[in-house]
Amino acid sequence: MEITKAEIASAAAAQQHTHSPQELMGSEILVKALQAEGVKYIWGYPGGAVLYIYDALYKQDTMQHVLVRHEQAAVHAADGYARATGDVGVALVTSGPGVTNAVTGIATAYMDSIPMVIITGQVPTAAIGLDAFQECDTVGITRPIVKHNFLVKDARDLAVTLKKAFHIARTGRPGPVVVDIPKDVSFKKVPFEGYPQSVEMRSYNPVRKGHGGQIRKAVQLLLAAKRPYIYTGGGVILGNASNELRQLVDLLGVPCTNTLMGLGAMPASDPRFLGMLGMHGTYEANMTMQHCDVLLAVGARFDDRVIGNPKHFASVERKIVHIDIDPSSISKRVKVDIPIVGDVKDVLQELIAHLKESATKPDKDAVNAWWS
């Protein structure tokens, strides 16, 4: 089976002009799916359970496979690529030790919300659960450190599973998704109906638009504040909302800080940027956090390295507005007054629009006194 560059554009539509679907091996369907997703690089290390996938990769020329010397390096490299480009990183590892070696890289991506798809080999379906050579419970081992994982038991489900995996990895709060493929699924031939254009999942519908009423409340709070402060995390970077953050800071003229994951969202040269906060942050950033009267938290999770003991943090009276796409992050460590669940970019755009329309303007004298 030859897969040429011309096929990348037609991976989803290839079947429209043929009456009977093409018969392809599971590994070939996997490669077509990756091409349809626009994957350019795959980091991996071969093994017996993924040999058919490697055969299919060898026959195409649109994706580059990067051979590593250890599975952990494959996942870390895919993670670095995803951070640098914003695309979904893809790694390929074999069953058993291949998967267990990849665990640290998967956990890192999960903690930092990095969009990744990790394809793992598995022993043949008939051998699962029989302690076969190089078998491990991939789904069980990775469950606490992935956004979701799949065990594909039928080659006919491969295309739709890959579509779901990429959709879950890159939407909502991003994260790694593991797709576990038994060896027999990768070599079995099945009819290929084409790659799905879209995917519907009843149990997965991340909220993008923030609640209008909550946004209006947040605007009122920010305009009435005497000592406002903006605290942002990795969500601003992942949500591509740096421009919106800078507009908001310009509009309000208030101090701003970033967490380690959020560095770069605000230019370090900007006089309103107080530096990173937390255990390894600046004195100004931390003291401002303690003495503000309204705190706007954007795409941050009130990490222990940032706020220390939540009991001590809560002892200082202040109003907190928290914007995050992940509802489970809101009020998880610190009780907030105005929760706003939604895409950071969308919510900030709406917040800015309300601030511009408002007849009330920030109290300049209070903000100047706060700065001094």
Describe the protein.
The longest helix has 15 residues, at 71-85. Strand 2, helix 3 and strand 3 (64-67) form a beta-alpha-beta unit. Helix content is 39%, strand content 18%. The strands form 3 sheets. The chain has a 6-stranded parallel β-sheet with strand order 3-2-4-5-7-6, with helices on both faces. With 372 residues, it is α/β, with parallel strands linked by helices. Helix 4 runs parallel beside helix 5. It is elongated. It is built from 16 helices and 14 strands. The model is unreliable at 14-18 (pLDDT under 50).
Defining key terms:
372 residues, 14 strands, six-stranded parallel sheet, 39% helix, alpha/beta, 16 helices, elongated
End-to-end C-alpha gap: 70 Å
Low-confidence stretches: 14-18
Shape: elongated
Write down how many β-strands occur, each being a DSSP E stretch of 2 or more residues.
14
| Beta fraction | 15-25%
Looking at the chains present, what oligomeric state does this protein adopt?
single chain
Structural class call reads alpha/beta
